[in-house]
Specification:
Chain B: Belongs to the tRNA-intron endonuclease family. The complex is a heterodimer of chains A (250) and B (237). Chain A is of the alpha+beta class. Chain A contains eight helices and twelve strands. Chain B has two domains: 97 residues, 3-Layer(aba) Sandwich (MutS, DNA mismatch repair protein, domain I), CATH 3.40.1170; 109 residues, Trna Endonuclease, Chain: A, domain 1, CATH 3.40.1350. Classes of the chains: A alpha+beta (250), B alpha+beta (237). Chains A and B meet through α7 of A and α7 of B.
């Protein structure tokens, strides 16, 4: 499915301002001011300057929290977003109850204790973010994330992403697969499942090193439609139902 | 959600011809001709006369198999439909490998061995059918069944049904699945109905259709709570 740009000229704008460039700018700016986020039980609150808030919005990290303060802006980050800024981009600090967590392992352990599936989700999040996809929560489509080619103001999201591991609770029965495929199709997205392979149960999960050992397998699932898959149109007529193919575009 | 009739006058037509009446007609007709169904590994093929085929269609049992025969019609029934006609309405016979299955226990065991969750799905199917809902496969909506108030030519289906059982339920375990099902059913103007089939563990009766008596069905609808539509002053009633 081709990307669906929201207005004429949006594609040109996106090409002129690649996400990777905005992220570099953001990284520099946040590192300079030594921004620090406050950890709570389900998210991270980050206090930034107005220009940084604008940069965060351009890169689609977090959501602005409305407040009356003029000089400071508060941004609410999900665990994945905060840890990505902290660990991958190394541009924010994280503090818990007024105490700065110097060691990234401490932050990792805290987030993992609050959300047991955090390691799996973070691996999936950082996997796509590293490829410059913009990720948002997939709450309203019954998936884990939705992925945008560029900023959501320019383009509709292309993939609805389900994060899976060996013992996941999704897509185990046909009715669930039909449900997820039909819903994604009806909002013009492709269902992308990310299988995160790794040992989530063992001691290793406590070490960030394990992130390096985790592998991510990408699969898109789409409905196989006989009318659109006539032999003369596609040479690979031996497709399975549903059509599962490796995602080369990512 | 109110039923969505497909055309003006459809509601009057539905009221004039209740499904229960058509089912009684079908029952006496099939009993008279001793209709015979052939069991395969995933469905039952029933051979009937053309008037009976028309009656089956009006009650929404099975699908017509296109054939060149003029006097005989072939109807493809799902296991649930066939067992309902056989066990509940007692109006068809079923044979396997050319041998008629006189005993309902034999049929029950064959179907259970072909389809693992047959007992649970059949309990849910007969539960709804007994209340004169018309039950069709929910394949295209990612659910087990969809139910209609009357014939699908008159009305849109109102509920998308997921059948759940203790221990065997693989759906709705995580929030993303619930969100997915609720959003999808909402987008096609249906309500999500979850039928929890509770079975008492009774090893003696487990292999018999008699165990159906011990099953209870709990009905639950799930939908999105929308704060704007649930203001205090509006919901006083």
């Amino acid at each position: 499915m081709a990307p669906r740009w929201k207005w004429k000229g949006a594609e040109a704008k996106a090409l002129a301002e690649p996400i990777s460039k905005s992220v570099s700018e953001l990284q520099l700016s946040l590192a300079e001011t030594e921004s620090s986020g406050t950890l709570s039980s389900c998210n991270v609150l980050l206090a930034v300057e107005p220009e940084q808030a604008e940069l965060l919005d351009r890169c689609c990290f977090g959501r602005l929290v409305l407040s009356a303060e003029k000089i400071k802006k508060w941004i609410q980050l999900s665990f994945e977003e905060a840890f990505f800024l902290h660990y991958n981009l190394k541009c924010i600090k994280i503090s818990l109850q007024g105490r700065c967590l110097e060691n990234e392992v401490d932050t990792w352990l805290y987030m993992k204790s609050k959300r047991p599936n955090f390691p799996m989700f973070f691996k999936a999040y950082s996997h796509l973010r590293s490829k410059n996809w913009v990720l948002r929560s997939g709450l309203q489509y019954g998936v884990d994330f939705v992925a945008y080619r560029h900023h959501p103001s320019l383009v509709h999201s292309e993939y609805s992403v389900l994060v899976q591991s060996g013992d996941s609770d999704r897509l185990r029965v046909w009715s669930d697969i039909h449900c997820a495929v039909r819903l994604s199709g009806s909002v013009a997205k492709t269902l992308l499942t990310l299988y995160v392979n790794g040992n989530f149960k063992g001691e290793d999960v406590n070490l960030l090193v394990c992130l390096e050992n985790f592998t991510v397998e990408e699969q898109t699932i789409s409905r196989w439609s006989p009318e659109l898959s006539r032999e003369d149109q596609s040479t690979n007529s031996k497709q399975h139902v549903p059509n599962v193919s490796n995602l080369n575009t990512l | 959600m109110a039923p969505r009739w497909k055309w003006k006058g459809a509601e009057a037509k539905a009221l004039a011809e209740p499904v229960s009446k058509t089912v009684s007609e079908l029952r006496s007709s099939l009993t008279q001709t001793e209709a015979l169904g052939f069991l395969s590994s995933c469905n039952v093929l029933l051979s009937v006369e053309s008037e009976e085929a028309e009656l089956l269609d009006r009650c929404c049992f099975g699908r017509l198999v296109v054939g060149a025969e003029k006097d005989k019609r072939w109807i493809q029934l799902s296991f649930e439909e066939a067992f309902f006609l056989f066990y509940k309405l007692k109006c068809i016979k079923i044979c396997l490998h050319g041998r008629s299955l006189e005993n309902e226990v034999d049929l029950w065991r064959s179907m259970s061995s072909f389809k693992q969750d047959f007992a649970i799905l059949y309990k849910a199917y007969s539960h709804l059918r007994s209340k004169n809902w018309i039950v069709r496969s929910g394949l295209q909506y990612g659910v087990d069944f969809v139910v209609y108030r009357h014939h699908p030519s008159l009305v849109h289906s109102e509920y998308a049904v997921l059948v759940q059982s203790i221990g065997g339920n693989d759906r709705l375990k995580v929030w993303s699945d619930i969100h997915c099902s609720v959003r999808l059913t909402g987008s096609v103007a249906k309500s999500l109905l979850v039928l929890y089939v509770n079975r008492k563990v009774n090893t003696e009766k487990m292999n018999l259709p008699l165990c159906l008596e011990d099953y209870t069905v709990e009905e639950q609808t799930i939908r999105r709570w929308s704060p704007e539509l649930s203001r205090e002053d509006e919901t006083r009633t």
